[in-house]
Structures are given as C-alpha cells and as structure tokens.
Amino acid sequence: MALVQNFPFITIVFSLTCGVLCAVLPGRGAKRLCLGWLALTTAMSGAVLRFTLTTDGSFLYRMGKWGAPFGNELRVGVLEALMATAFSGVMLLSLLGGMRHIFADCEPGKVNLYFTMCALLMSSLFALIYTNDLFTAYVFVEINTIASCALVMLRSSDRTLVATTRYLIMSLLGSGLFLLGIVTLYGITGELLLESIAEKVQALFAAGQYSLPLTVIIGFFSVGLAVKSALFPFHSWLPDAHGSATPSSSAILSGLVLKGYIIVLIKIFYRVFGLEIIVSEQVSRFLLLFGVLAMLVGSVNALRERDLKRLLAYSSVAQVGYIYVGIGLHSELGMVAACVQILAHALTKPMLFICAGGFMDVSGGHKDLAAITGAGLRDPLGGAAFSVGALSMMGIPFFAGFVTKLELARGALEAGPVTLGITFAALAVSTLLNALYYIPIVFNLYTRPRDGAWAGVRQRYHWEYAAALAAFIALNLGFGMGSDWVVGAIRRGLALFGM
Amino acid sequence: MPGLVQHLFTNYYETAAVVLFGIGFTTLLMHRNLLKKIIGFNFMDSAIYLYLASKGYIAGRLAPIVSGENADPARYINPIPTGLVLTGIVVSVSVTAFLLALTCRLYDRFHTLDIDEITRLARKEQV
C-alpha cells in the first residue's frame, strides 16, 4: 500500500486531533495550527487526487485491516479526492478572508474554540466524502451539525442565538429521518457497508420483495438530507443562520456544509440503490420539481431582500436548487452537472460572503444594500471579487457558474421533452432573476454615495484578506476556463462510482 | 389488509418504535416550548434505539459478552445493533446537552421558552 493511500484516513483523524489541540491553545496559536493543518490537508488531498488520476482507479482503505462485514472502510476515487481537495482549500481561504472578523466577533478568549469547530467540521466533511459505511456517515453528519451550529453561535448576539436554535432543530429533524432510513435499511439488509447493502438491495429489487419499504427508505433519505441541505421547502432556517453569522462562518456554511450532505445523498442514491431503482421509484421527479422551485423561490426572495448577507443566503437556496435539478435529471450528464455545481458554488459563494464582510468594514459595520453604496470604490479588491462572483452566479462564460449551466443544459437535452422544457425554462428564468438582483448590487457598489457617507473610509488591506480574495478570483476564472479538465475528472470519478 | 395488521402485531416492538418516532418527530417540529422540543427529540432517538435493539435481539440467546474459549456465535444475539445503539446514545446525549445549553442562554436573555415568542422578540430588537 502506497503512503498516499493513508492520507484520507490521516486527514480525517488528525483533523479531529487538531480540533482537540486548538481547544487548549491560545487564540493565535490555534489559528496558526488550524491554518497550517488546513494547508497540509489540501496538499495531501491533492496528492490523493493525483494518485487516483494516475492509477485511474479507486481503492478501499480498511481500518485496522478488518475486512467486510466487520470492518469500517473508506473508499477513495477521483471524485472523492477532487471534492476533498476543493473543500479543504475553500475552507482555508474562507478562514483567511474573514480572519479579522473572527477575532472581532468572537468573545475574547474564545477565539480558539472557533478554530476547534472549524477543524471538527473539516474532519466531518472529509469523513462524509470518504466513508463507505452508513452509520459512520450518520455519526459524522451529527458532528457536522453540532460544529456548524457552533460556528453560527460564536458571534454572540441575540439574533445568532435564535438562528442557531432554529438551525439545530431543523437539522435534528433531518438527521432523525436520515437515521430512521439507515436503521430500516439495516433491518432489511443486515448490512452497513455501501457495497454490501447495494448487493442485497439489487437482489431484493430483482425479486420484487420489500418494494414498499425500499420506497419509504428512499423517501427518508431524500427528505432527511434535503432538510439538512436546505432544499426548498425546507429552507426557512437558512437565511437567518447564514445571514447573521460572522463572514467566515457564512462562507463555510453556504459553500461547504450544505454540500457535504448532498454528497452523502449522491453516494446513497448511486452506490446503494443505483440509477435504475431511483428512476423507477420516481424520486428523481420530485427532486427535479423541488430543485426547480428552489431555483425560482430562492431568487425571488433574494430579489426582495435588502440585507446583503441574507440576500446571498437566499441565493444559496437557489443554487442548491441547481444541484438537485442535476440529480433529478437522473442521467449521468445530470450527475456531472450536479457535481460541477457543487464545486462551482463552493468556489463562488464563500468569495461573495468574504466580500460582504469586507464591505461591512468600509461601511461602518452595516450590511444593508443602501449602506454599502460605493463600497466597491472604498474596497477595490473586494469590489472586483464581488463582481467576479456576481458574474459567475449569473452564468457568464469564462466564470465558474457558466460551466454548471452548460452541463445542466447538456444533461436536460438527453432527458424527455417535458423535463427538457421545465429545465430550460427554469434555467432561463433563474438566470434572469440572478441578473436582476446581482447587477444592481454591482452597480450600487460603484456608485458614489450622494450624502458622502463613509467617503474617507478605505479598506485597510491585510495580506490574509487580499490573498484569499485573489486566490478565489483566480480559482473561479481557472475553473471557468479550465472546465474541461474538471468535468473530465468528475466523469471519471462518477464512472468509478459504478454508474 | 388482515395480513398487514397481523404483521403489525407480530412485530410489535417495531410498531411501537415507529409510533414513538412519530410522536417525537411531531413534538420536535410543532411544539413551541423549547424544553418539550428537546423531550421530543429524545423520544425520537429512543424510538430508533428501540427499533435497532429489537432488530438485533434473537429470542432465547445470550447477551454478546464472550468469556473464555467456548465462543459459539449461535449462542449470542447480534452484537452490531447494540453497538450502534451505544454510539447513537452518545450522539444524542451530546446534542441534547448542546440544545439544553442553548435553551439556558435563550431563557437568560428572553425569560421565555416559547420559540415563536423568542423569534419575535429577537426580530424586534434588531429593528
């Protein structure tokens, strides 16, 4: 076994260790440890990605060398490694970009706990990406929930407290359904490893047994994870939680945490049940429908919102809708589109939230649209990054968001005429709506405020903020222009999923 | 239909577990009192543990505590669900602790346990 094959396990377990260490270190030390570790995990995940690309295969990592059915396994393929690399990189940049706010927003002496939670969150994301065992997935889903609620709460104000409580309650409903799905499936198949369950499920399905319970189980998984990933109509908790947290938290929650659950759902759909069962159970139709509704409702709500961060949160609801539309197209191309959207949104939305944090700096801490007039002039780099992000969200070519729309359209062309019509109409309307609320903000950023408010304020650039934004811009453009490579890698990864 | 009813009575542990899950789920979703929400959450999780434990139980067999050499798998119940229940209890205890801590802080600030009232008060303070 090559050294690099141990990296997935190392990234998961040592992220937990890093979290524990951060809890006892002082704030600055915790920051250095956490950032250093994240840089290292990004490099290690990159090495894993390179390894899987060169060997063009996936491998199983058996914990303690125990085989099935007793052991616990990690499964690593191109797609998993790609997601892990992107997620830890985005996590690092989000923390860097909002670093000043983290230190300002947390209660003094508790900053180290913020990094503890970030490390735990990263560990759970890695575990959700790599794990091959359903119950492990459940445990890490709960770790993810607690860590992300704590990230919202660490900026102590009444509003974040209430937002955290509502977020936690909704999340618990979701994980309750997810757990019920796991135990019912375990009751039928007696297995927890994905491949073993898949074998038995296929046999049951071929024999025509247990078809009602299997449908119900698919329903539990879909609804449970849809609640947690804020698919319309379960999105009500998201704007409060993402709108009131510190910029880094909003960036991480919007960009990464929602996606972790979706990756679990994709794994369950395609590695446990398989495409045929999902199609014959009509689940994908519901996902497509709710995805389309999410795209529209999220955008309409964003259009009416006057608070920049809540607006971005509503835009996340719409963007999650794109992912579900991709899944709901129930074809390989649709899945490619969903994975592309996971990456594209993970690269774009955190950048927008970090910019929103920068605009608050130069607008006296306000984040409503009227107050940030001219913020792009006072914070030129933030303005440039926000414009890039806005163009990407609208789906202008050469930006990351365009790739998603292209792939979604390609996936829809393969589907039936009704699906094709609905998807194309939804894409067109949602692009229009995105443009309707992003373009005015960009113009607003470059309008000189009439009353000369905050005229003398200039962004005092710290290398962390500047480096994070520069890296985000570069990644976004790189993703948009080098999309062939990414799409090719995703395709190979999905092929390894056994599609 | 009689077949279905009979199944419900044969697997009465599972039936009870699903009913309890429903009670817990609706309490967590609908109830306005935070403490009752937490109780509902615990109902929900306990129901799942009941379900799992009953799935792993095989009538007439022993608890899977192996001592000595004569470990014959046929004498013991299935240990995996028991292990899952233990893991699940750890998870739900920590989540309960977190929720209770949040509730304490909310009560300190707003002097009420009604989540709708708290949301209203927090919104009013913002404006």
Give an overview in words:
The complex is a heterodimer of chains A (499) and B (127). With 499 residues, chain A is mostly helical. Chain A has one domain (3-496). In chain A, 78% of the residues lie in helices and 2% in strands. Chain A has helices spanning 7-24, 27-55, 78-97, 99-105, 111-130, 134-153, 158-189, 194-207, 211-228, 238-244, 247-280, 283-304, 308-328, 332-362, 375-378, 380-394, 400-414, 417-445, 463-481, 483-496, and strands at 59-62, 73-76. Chain A has a two-stranded antiparallel sheet with strand order 1-2. In chain A, helix 6 (134-153) packs antiparallel against helix 11 and helix 10 (238-244) crosses helix 13 (308-328). The mean pLDDT of chain A is 88. Chain B has 127 residues and is mainly α. Chain B has one domain (2-59, 76-126): Helix Hairpins. Chain B is built from 5 helices and no strands. The longest helix of chain B is centred in the C-terminal third of the chain and has 32 residues, at 79-110. Chain B is elongated, with a radius of gyration of 21 Å. The relative contact order of chain B is 0.12. The model of chain B has no long low-confidence stretch (mean pLDDT 87). The chains are: A mainly alpha (499), B mainly alpha (127). Chains A and B meet through helix 6 and helix 7 of A and helix 2, helix 3, helix 4 and helix 5 of B.
Helix content of chain B: over 70%
Q: What's the rounded overall pLDDT mean of chain A?
A: 88
Structural class of chain B: mainly alpha
CATH architecture of chain B: Orthogonal Bundle
- Intertermini distance of chain A: 26 Å
Q: Low-confidence segments of chain B, ≥5 residues, pLDDT <50?
A: none
Q: What amount of the residues of chain B lies in strands?
A: under 5%
Give the end-to-end Cα distance of chain B, rounded to a whole number of Å: 57 Å
